[in-house]
Design goal:
The complex is a heterodimer. Chain A is built from 17 helices and 22 strands. By secondary structure, chain A is α/β, with parallel strands linked by helices. Chain A has three domains: 238 residues, P-loop containing nucleotide triphosphate hydrolases (Rossmann fold); 174 residues, Rossmann fold, CATH 3.40.50.300; 77 residues, no CATH class. Chain A has a six-stranded mixed beta sheet with strand order 6-9-10-3-11-12, with helices on both faces. In chain A, strands 18-19-20-15-21-22 form a six-stranded mixed beta sheet, with helices on both faces. Chain A has a four-stranded antiparallel beta sheet with strand order 2-1-4-5, with helices on one face. Chain A is globular. By secondary structure, chain B is mainly alpha-helical. Chain B has a domain of 204 residues. The chains are: A alpha/beta, B mainly alpha.
C-alpha cells in the first residue's frame, strides 16, 4: 500500500528510571489496515501505545498524524486527533449507564445542559455500528465483559475515529465473541479506520492483521506484511532465539515408581448450582491433569472446588484417602493444595510489596505471623526462586507490581511453591503473558510433576493443554464430558471434542 | 454467544429493566422510607408530632446543613471528603459579623463570605489534585486553618445586628402553620441547582465518572484535574453560603460555632444514599439525609432525653447504612 500513513512514529526513544523502554523505534499505520504490534512482555508494546495515546511523552523521536508532527500532552489531546484506545482491562465506568459510557464528555447539549434524549439517540446509533442493541439506560455493570468491550468500541466509533487501538481485546472473550469482534473490526477497516490490534494469540493476529511490527527489548525488529511472514519466523523474531529452544521436551513419559502413582486427591460428584454439575475426578501423584473447555464450561469452577476456594455443595473430596471438607482456602493449603487464580491482578500479586515479600507471603502465613522468617533465610529463599524460575529483573526488592505479566505469574508460582504443596491448581497461569514466558511456565510445570507434585492445569489454549498434560479432562456446558490421553490426540481432535454441541451427541 | 444477540438483551422484563436502571436510587428510597417510618413512629408515640409547623421548622432550622450537604455530595461523589466545612462555615460567619460590626455594607459582606469559602475550597482542591494529598488530610488542614483564623478574628462572640442578614431567618413567608424563611428558600435553591448541575452538565457527569474510576475517567479524556479541584471549590462556596445562613440563624458570629458540623454533614450525605467510595448518590438523597437527621434531633428533644442521644442515634443509623452500602457494592461487583 503506497498511501500516506495516517500515523507515523520515527525514532521513538524513552527511558524509565535508567532502563531503556524504547530505543529508536519506528512505527506506522495506514488507513483501512489492521496492524499488530508483537513482542514479548517488556518489549515496549505498551510503552509505544502510551506514547501514541498521549499517556506518556517520548524523550526523543516524532509522532505525526497525516504527516503533521504532533505532541500529545494528555489522552484528551490524542483523542481530539482521532486516536482512540480500548484497553485490556476495560476502562469504562461501571456505575454509569451504557449511554453515558459511550457519550461521556461529548454529550449533545442544549443551552449548555445535557440533552439526554439526544444523548441516548447518539449512543444507540454508535451501538448500532458495532452491532449492539442495548438499553442505553441500563447500567454498564449489568452487562458481560464481551458486551462491555463492544460498548468501549462503540464509544470510540461515536467520534471522528481515525485510529483505533485495541489492547488485548480478546483475552477475556470466548470464540464466538472473538468472531463478533472481528466482524466489527473488518467493518471499521472497510471504512478507512486504521486499527492497531495487540494480542498474544498468534492465530488471531494472522486472521485479522495485514501488517505486523515486531519489538524486542524496546528495540524495533522490523515491520512485515502478515501474508509474507511465516508464523514460525514471527515467533523467532519476537523471541530472538533459535526456535528449537522453544520445543519443549515432551513431558516426562518415563514411568514413575509404582508408589508415586497413588491417588492424591479424589473428588466424587462435586458440584455447585449453576456453576458445575456433579463431577468426579482423581488426581495421581506426579501427574499433570489438564482441564480443557471453553470459557464458562465449568473449568474454573471445578478448579476452585478442588482447591478448596469454593466449597462443594454435593459429593466429597478426599485428600490422600482422608475425606476433607475445605471451608476456606487456608484449610486446603494446610494439607498441601495450592491454588493460583486466573485473576492474578485482583486475587494474586500485591503490587506494592516487593518480589521477596510477595514470594514469602504464603510461607509466612503458614508459619504464623509471630514466627518471623529470618531475613537471611528470606533472602536465600527468594534468591533461589528467582533463579529457579528466572524472574526478571532478578532484584528481590523490586516492587512486584512493576514486573511484566509473565514475571508476576512466576512470582505467584514461587509463592505457592514456597509452601511445598503436594497439589498445585493453576488456573490459566499463562494467560496474557508472552510466548517465551509461557514456555518457561510450561517447563516449570513439567519439572514440578517430575518431582512427584500433582498439577491441575487450565488454559484457554488447547495446544498448551495438550503439550503440558499427562491426562486431559474435557468440560463442556458445566460437566465433564471426556477423559483423554494427550498422546493419542491432536489439537484439532481436542478442539472438536471441546466445541461439540450437545445436539450432536 | 447469546449475550451479544439483541434478543436476550431485550428479553428482560420491564420490571427488571426498571430496577436495573434505577438501582442507584435504591439507597435514596431507603432514606425516604426511614424518614416516613420516623414520622409515623413520632406521630403514634407523641400524638401531635407531624404538624405543618414541625415540617416547616425542619427545613428552616436545618437550612445551613442542607447547603453544606449539597456541597459535600459533590466531594463524596468523586470519592473525596471535606472535613473543613464546619470550620469554614464558622470562619465566614465570624468574618461577616466582624465586618458588619465595623460598618461594611451587607452587599459587600455577603459576596465576600462566599468568596472566602471558595478560597478555602480552592486551597484544599489544589492540595488534593496537584500535590496528591489525601482529601482527609488536605481538608483537615483546611479545617484547622479556618478554625484558627476564627480566633484571629475574635475570641468573643460578635453579635450581628444587620437587618438584611437577620431578616433571612426572621422573615416568615406563608401562613402561621406553613411557613418558609429566605434561608429555607436559599437551601432549596442550592439543592435544585446542585441536582441540576450533577444531572445535566458535563461537569456533573464527570464528577460521577471520577467516583466510578478516576483512571478510566482520565483515559476517557475527561477533565479530571479541573473537576476534582472544582468540587472542593463548590463545597467551599456552600460552606460560605452556610456561614451566611448560620449567622442569620444564630444572630452572631462565634469562633466555636459548627464544631462537628462537618461530621453531621457527612453523616447526612451517607444516610441519604451517597456511596462513600464515590460514583453513586444524589443531592436529593442528601436533602432527605438532613431531614432524617433533623427528625432525630427533634424527637430527642420531644423525649426530653439528653442531646447526646442525637449523636448516638445518628451513629447507629450511619453504621446500618454503611453496612447496607457494602452489601450493595459487594453484590454489584459479584456480577
Amino acid at each position: 500500500m503506497d498511501a500516506q500513513p495516517v500515523l507515523e512514529v520515527v525514532g521513538a526513544q524513552l527511558r524509565f528510571a535508567g532502563d531503556t523502554a524504547l530505543a529508536d523505534v519506528d512505527f506506522r499505520m495506514f488507513p483501512g489496515e489492521v496492524h499488530s504490534l508483537m513482542g514479548e512482555n517488556g518489549a515496549g508494546k505498551s510503552t509505544l501505545i502510551k506514547a501514541i495515546t498521549g499517556a506518556i511523552r517520548l524523550d526523543a523521536g516524532t509522532i505525526s498524524v497525516d504527516g503533521t508532527a504532533v505532541s500529545f500532552a494528555t489522552p484528551a489531546a490524542a483523542q481530539r486527533a482521532g486516536i482512540r484506545t480500548v484497553y485490556q482491562e476495560i476502562d469504562l465506568l461501571p456505575n454509569l449507564s451504557v449511554a453515558e459510557n459511550i457519550m461521556l464528555g461529548r454529550e449533545p447539549r442544549r443551552l449548555g445542559f445535557i440533552d439526554w434524549r439526544a444523548t441516548r439517540a447518539a449512543a444507540r446509533e454508535a451501538m448500532r455500528q458495532v452491532g449492539l442493541e442495548l438499553d442505553p439506560d441500563s447500567l454498564l455493570s449489568s452487562h458481560s465483559l464481551a458486551v462491555q468491550q463492544l460498548v468501549a468500541i462503540a464509544r470510540a466509533v461515536s467520534t471522528e475515529l481515525r485510529i483505533l487501538i485495541l489492547d488485548e481485546p480478546t483475552s477475556s472473550l470466548d470464540q464466538d465473541e472473538v468472531a463478533e469482534l472481528f466482524g466489527v473490526i473488518r467493518d471499521l477497516k472497510s471504512r478507512g479506520v486504521a486499527i492497531l490490534f495487540v494480542s498474544h494469540f498468534l492465530e488471531q493476529v494472522y486472521e485479522i492483521c495485514d501488517r505486523v511490527t515486531v519489538l524486542r527489548n524496546g528495540s524495533m525488529v522490523g515491520e512485515y506484511l502478515t501474508t509474507e511472514l511465516l508464523r514460525i519466523d514471527l515467533v523467532q523474531k519476537m523471541l530472538g532465539r533459535d526456535i528449537s529452544e522453544l520445543e519443549l521436551e515432551s513431558h516426562s513419559t518415563a514411568p514413575l515408581p509404582e508408589s508415586d502413582h497413588g491417588v492424591v486427591l479424589s473428588a466424587v460428584e462435586v458440584s455447585r448450582a449453576h456453576r458445575i454439575e456433579p463431577t468426579s475426578v482423581e488426581l495421581h501423584a506426579g501427574e499433570v491433569l489438564g482441564l480443557a473447555g471453553l470459557l464458562g464450561s465449568g473449568r474454573t469452577e471445578l478448579a476452585r472446588i478442588l482447591s478448596g476456594v469454593d466449597p462443594t455443595e454435593t459429593g466429597r473430596i478426599s485428600y490422600e484417602g482422608t475425606q476433607r471438607h475445605f471451608a476456606e482456602p487456608r484449610e486446603a493449603l494446610a494439607v498441601g493444595v495450592a491454588y493460583s487464580s486466573e485473576n492474578r491482578k485482583v486475587e494474586g500479586i500485591i503490587a506494592e510489596l516487593s518480589v521477596r515479600e510477595n514470594i514469602l507471603l504464603a510461607l509466612q502465613a503458614e508459619q504464623g505471623w509471630v514466627r518471623r522468617i529470618a531475613r537471611r533465610r528470606q533472602d536465600e529463599l527468594t534468591a533461589s526462586w528467582i533463579e529457579a524460575l528466572d524472574i526478571r529483573p532478578a532484584n528481590p526488592e523490586h516492587p512486584a507490581g512493576l514486573l511484566s505479566g509473565g514475571n508476576q505469574q512466576k512470582v505467584m508460582l514461587a509463592r505457592l511453591l514456597a509452601v511445598a504443596p503436594r497439589v498445585l491448581v493453576l488456573d490459566e497461569p499463562t494467560r496474557g503473558i508472552d510466548v517465551g514466558a509461557k514456555i518457561e511456565v510450561q517447563r516449570v510445570i513439567s519439572d514440578l510433576a517430575a518431582t512427584g507434585m500433582s498439577v491441575v492445569f487450565i488454559s484457554a489454549e488447547l495446544e498448551e493443554v495438550l503439550r503440558v498434560s499427562d491426562r486431559i479432562l474435557v468440560l463442556r456446558d458445566r460437566r465433564a464430558v471426556a477423559e483423554l490421553d494427550p498422546e493419542t490426540l491432536t489439537v484439532d481432535m481436542l478442539l472438536a471434542i471441546v466445541a461439540k454441541a450437545d445436539t450432536d451427541e | 454467544m447469546s449475550a451479544l444477540t439483541p434478543a436476550t438483551e431485550t428479553r428482560f422484563s420491564s420490571l427488571r429493566k426498571l430496577i436495573q436502571r434505577r438501582v442507584s436510587w435504591l439507597p435514596v428510597g431507603a432514606a425516604v422510607l426511614i424518614l416516613v417510618l420516623m414520622f409515623a413512629a413520632g406521630q403514634s408515640y407523641f400524638g401531635r408530632f407531624l404538624t405543618p409547623r414541625l415540617l416547616s421548622s425542619l427545613l428552616v432550622d436545618n437550612a445551613y446543613l442542607i447547603v453544606l450537604a449539597a456541597g459535600m455530595t459533590f466531594v463524596i461523589l468523586t470519592g473525596g471528603i471535606d472535613l473543613s466545612v464546619g470550620a469554614v462555615m464558622a470562619f465566614t460567619g465570624m468574618l461577616a459579623a466582624k465586618l458588619l460590626s465595623t460598618g461594611v455594607p451587607t452587599a459587600v459582606v455577603i459576596p465576600l463570605m462566599v468568596v472566602s469559602g471558595a478560597v478555602f475550597g480552592l486551597i484544599i482542591g489544589v492540595l488534593v489534585n496537584y500535590f496528591d494529598v489525601q482529601p482527609f488530610i488536605a481538608s483537615l488542614a483546611g479545617m484547622f486553618l479556618a478554625r484558627g483564623l476564627c480566633f484571629v478574628v475574635s475570641l468573643e462572640a460578635i453579635q450581628v445586628k444587620d437587618t438584611t442578614v437577620l431578616g433571612l431567618q426572621s422573615v416568615k413567608l406563608g401562613t402561621f402553620e406553613w411557613y418558609i424563611t429566605p434561608t429555607g428558600i436559599i437551601a432549596l435553591l442550592v439543592i435544585a441547582v446542585a441536582a441540576w448541575v450533577l444531572g445535566y452538565t458535563r461537569f456533573g457527569r464527570t464528577v460521577y465518572a471520577i467516583g466510578g474510576n478516576e483512571q478510566s475517567a482520565r483515559l476517557m479524556g475527561l477533565p479530571v484535574a479541573r473537576t476534582k479541584v472544582l468540587v472542593y471549590v463548590i463545597s467551599g462556596v456552600c460552606a460560605g453560603i452556610a456561614g451566611l445562613l448560620f449567622t442569620a440563624y444564630t444572630a452572631a458570629g462565634y469562633s466555636l460555632n459548627g464544631i462537628g458540623t462537618e461530621l453531621d454533614t457527612i453523616a447526612s450525605v451517607v444516610i441519604g444514599g451517597t456511596l462513600l467510595a464515590g460514583g453513586s448518590g444524589y443531592v436529593i438523597g442528601s436533602l432527605i439525609g438532613v431531614l432524617v437527621y433533623g427528625v432525630i434531633k427533634v424527637s430527642i428533644t420531644f423525649l426530653g432525653a439528653d442531646s447526646s442521644w442525637t449523636r448516638i442515634t445518628i451513629g447507629i443509623l450511619l453504621l446500618v447504612f454503611v453496612v447496607v452500602q457494602r452489601v450493595l457494592v459487594a453484590r454489584g461487583s459479584r456480577r
